[in-house]
Each structure stands twice: as C-alpha cells, then as structure tokens.
Amino acid sequence: MLTDDEARTAYQEVLQKLRGVGAHGLADEIELAVGRGRVQERERQPMQERLPATAALEIALRMLTTWVEPVFLMSEAKTVLREASAVDIGEVRWAHDRLDIVEPDPRSAALLTGDGQAVSEMPQVDVRQLEELRIQIERLHDLVAELVAAEGE
Amino acid sequence: MATLNDLRAAITQLLGFPSVPSVLQLNSNTRERAFECYVFALVLRAVRQAGGTVELQGILSGPNPNPLVFRGGPGHLGSRAQDFCYARCSLNGRDFEVHADVAYLGSSGASHEIDVSLCDRSVADAVRQNPGLLPNTRGLRAAIECKFYDSQLGTALGRTFVGLVDDCGRVVVKTFVTNGRSAPLAAYFSKASRPEVFFEVSPLIAGSRDRFAGVVEQALRRWAGVA
C-alpha cells in the first residue's frame, strides 16, 4: 500500500513523464479531472470533493492505460471486419464529409486527412508487439487494482 | 502489495514502449472515431452470429473498398464527397445497412447524428438517390451511441442519448457503449425503458465486447424472426 505522500509523488511523476514523451493533452486532461477536484454529478445538486492522493493516482493510471487503447481498437476492428465480411481489410482512413464545400474534380487527396489528424496516422503495431503491450497494460491494471483494494481497507 | 518502485517501473516500461508516446498524442476526435469503428465492427459480427450476410461497400467504389473510409465527423448517408464505407446486410429476408456517423431526421423534425446505426436498405437506397436528404428515422432499426472514455462520463451524456432515441420512433437496438465506466451513468440507465448501457467494451477486457455483440445479435434475431 502506498502512503499519501508516495501516491502524491507517483502522481506528479506520471504527469511529468507524460509531458516528457509529448503527451501534453493527456497530462492536461488528467489534471482537469483531478487537480481541482472532481465534480460529482448528483441528481439535483452537483458538488465538488477533494480527491485523496491515491484516488488521483488511480484516475491518472486508468486514463493512461485507456488512452493506449486505440491501437488495440483498430487492430481488433480490422480482424472483426475481416471475419464478418470475409475479405482482407487494408488501410482504414477517416475523412470529413465536405458536402457543403465545392471541390474541383477529382477532389484533393488532402481531404482524406480531415481536420488535423487522421487515424491512418495511428502507429502500426504488429501482433507480437500488441501482445507485449497488452501484458504491460495488464500489469498496470493489476497495480491499480491493488491500490484501490488497499484504499478500501 | 504494490510499492512505489513497482509503479514507477511499470509506468516507465509502458511509456518506453516504441509506439506508446505517439498513441498518447492522438487527439480526442481520433480516439472517438477509432472506438466507433470498433463498435461498427462488433455490430457486423452480431449480424454474422445471427446468421446474416455482410458486405462492405464504398459509396463510390462499390463492394469491398480499399481503403475503408469512415466519416471523421457527422455526415450525410448519401454523401459522395469521399468513398465512405458502410455495410450491406441481409438477415432472414430483411435487407438493411450499417452506417457510422450518419445524421437522421427525427420524428420531431430535428436532425440527430447517430454514431453507429442500422437502417432499412430501401430507406438508404432512396436517400442515395437524393444525397442532400436525411434518412427518416422510420427506417432506423438500431441507434448506438459510442463514447471513448474520458473524465466526463456523466449523466448528461445519458440524458442526451435518451432524448435522441425518444425522437427516433421504434428502434430494436438502442444502446450506449463505452470503454469506460461510470457509476452515475449506470444508475441513470438502470431505469426500465431506458437504453441499455455497456461499459468497458474493449479489446483489453474480455467479456464485455462479447456480451454487447450477443445482445445485438439476439435483438436482430427477434426483429428478423430468426429462430
């Protein structure tokens, strides 16, 4: 079980490491969720509560592991689509619907990347790497579960 | 028992994995669309499990498009602005289609964007003849709201979706699907007659995705009269 100080330290380290690898958006989202307290929606009366350091750390770790999920989502989506349609699935792209924009014909391929970022930019991870990544995430899930269990004692 | 050093090691190892830093930099729209694509695929799995057929279509290129192009935001079912893909399905004589991120016209006259939807093929064919029109919800059979987990999984999301399906006539599948979890949202959806909610639908969590596909499969079987 972590002490309050250790949990606070670990929480700060997570944010620092995330920013260190360029994941500023996730670090900001975690701080939004945790840093100024979490709004608990109640039926009638929204209220704010201070979060214990362990709970803040738990939220940070859960958000971290969840944000890694898109590579698994796309890998499994392709597998399921292949099984359902019985054809090989190549690349998957996202494009914004520009019905209201008059475009020359043929349309620019640049449109295919939509606004800012397309999932086609998602890093490609092979099956062996996915399995390794899954093991690491499960390890972190186990640690979070221990934290939560210890908090409830 | 977990120690601070155990945690540090696990976090360092995860962040040190080659593709993880770039995955963590994806924007929220990209994460949402990836989750919708995953749910779209699970619905097609449900169709197959029910005994139906599935064929992927590109609105410009026809069967089995490559690449598969999904909408990056709400759009029109009949839009030919890109080679948007959808699935043509048949089940026990019922012909229908599965779409992602398409807007429908509700019974109130308001338009609603539905993350993953299933509609009668006749309705979709008619709309493709008039691409500027929105499909009417009278032909809508399934409305699925998808939400990639973030820190804001509050009951407001549930209320919005309930308002949407109330305006959509009689749909056989109305579900809220997320890879996260939320006690307030679970409590909100627990009331009878509200849409069914599925939490932790994720490739990383065994069970939830199969339960979701199973529930959709059973609803489709009942609708199509499949024994």
Short description:
Chain A has 153 residues and is mostly helical. In chain A, 56% of the residues lie in helices and 7% in strands. Chain A contains five helices and three strands.
Question: Key features?
Answer:
heterodimer, A: 153 residues, mainly alpha, two-stranded antiparallel sheet, 5 helices, 56% helix, B: 227 residues, alpha+beta, Restriction Endonuclease, eight-stranded mixed β-sheet, 9 strands, globular
Outline the fold blueprint:
The complex is a heterodimer of chains A (153) and B (227).
Chain A (H helix, E strand, L loop, with lengths): L3 H17 L3 H11 L3 E3 L6 E3 L3 H15 L2 H16 L6 E4 L31 H26 L1
Antiparallel strand pairs in A: 1-2
Helix pairs in contact in A: 1-2, 1-3, 2-3, 3-5
Chain B lengths: L3 H13 L3 H5 L3 H22 L3 E6 L3 E2 L4 E4 L13 E7 L2 E12 L5 E10 H9 L10 E8 L7 H12 L6 E6 L4 H7 L6 E3 L9 H17 L3
Parallel strand pairs in B: 7-8, 8-9
Antiparallel strand pairs in B: 1-2, 1-4, 4-5, 5-6, 6-7
Helix pairs in contact in B: 3-7, 5-6
The largest contact between protein chains, plus residue counts on each side, is:
A-B, 87 and 75 residues
Tell me the number of helical segments of chain B per DSSP (H or I, 4 or more residues long): 7
**What is the general shape of chain B?**
globular
CATH topology of chain B: Restriction Endonuclease
As an assembly, this protein is: heterodimer
Largest sheet of chain A: 2 strands, antiparallel
CATH architectural category of chain B: 3-Layer(aba) Sandwich
Task: Calculate the mean pLDDT score of chain A and round it.
Answer: 77
**Helix/strand-derived class of chain A?**
mainly alpha
Poorly predicted sequence stretches spanning 5 or more consecutive residues of chain B: none
| Number of separate strands of chain A | 3
Residue runs with pLDDT of under 50 for 5 or more positions of chain A: 99-119
Q: What's the arrangement of strands in the largest beta sheet of chain A?
A: 1-2
Radius of gyration of chain A, in Å, reads: 21 Å
Range of strand content of chain B: 25-35%
Element pattern of chain A in H and E: HHEEHHEH
Q: Which strands sit side by side, in order, in the main sheet of chain B?
A: 2-1-4-5-6-7-8-9
- SSE class of chain B: alpha+beta
Radius of gyration of chain B from CA coordinates = 19 Å
Strand content of chain A: 5-15%
